[in-house]
């Protein structure tokens, strides 16, 4: 079974621009979560989508948004990029919510998109 | 607030020795815990998990121990190998407010040959 895929793997943007990142979850997984990873802050939760609805949200400004499509693929968008947005953006998928028990809550991560804002 | 923390940011061990990576969590409502391994340039990889109704779980060369009394989690790696060098994260799942996973800061494990 193919793992979580993310595109693009690397991205360079300038301040003020916007960016869209894409994530394809493991087949059958309906939950997709996004994280920002930086050396100083570690893994920070952005949001989670399940069945095309945002189910949970972290403490990030409104410049960070996302969506999920009917095939569970997800995109996240960052508008008006700032230097501090430079980070590795990770997507994780899981079965959570589709069957009972915490064993289905395991998240499987993609390789990430490395975003550099100049 | 909720937090998952690690006692040691870096750990250096000799190849063949056992490694122990520790983690503290503060939310007693968390019911599921996971350890991830992240190698350079890759996303975190699932290693092992444990439910809150267990205190020990073993995998291949890895064991996770959960002490709910002191809210402590540990990952033990037996016969550590150079390929084990990575950053290890503990994570907790808390169903309050929806499915939410909180990650610790991470511990970097160096394995000396």
Protein described:
The complex is a heterodimer of chains A (118) and B (113). Chain A contains no helices and eleven strands. By secondary structure, chain A is mainly β. Chain A is globular, with a radius of gyration of 14 Å. The N and C termini of chain A lie far apart (37 Å). Residues 98-104 of chain A have low confidence and may be disordered. Chain B has strands spanning 4-6, 10-14, 19-25, 32-38, 45-51, 56-58, 62-67, 72-77, 86-94, 100-103, 107-112. In chain B, the strands form two sheets. In chain B, strands 2, 4, 5, 9, 10 and 11 form a six-stranded mixed β-sheet that branches. Chain B has a five-stranded antiparallel β-sheet with strand order 1-3-8-7-6, with no helix packed on it. The interface between A and B is medium-sized, with 24 and 24 residues.
Going by helix content, strand content and strand pairing, the class of chain B is: mainly beta
Strand content of chain B: over 45%
Task: Note the quaternary state here.
Answer: heterodimer
Q: What is the overall pLDDT average of chain B? A: 87
Shape of chain A: globular
Helical percentage of chain B: under 10%
Distance between the termini of chain A: 37 Å
Hey, roughly how much beta strand do the residues of chain A contain?
Answer: over 45%
Could you report the average pLDDT of chain A, rounded to the nearest whole number? Answer: 90
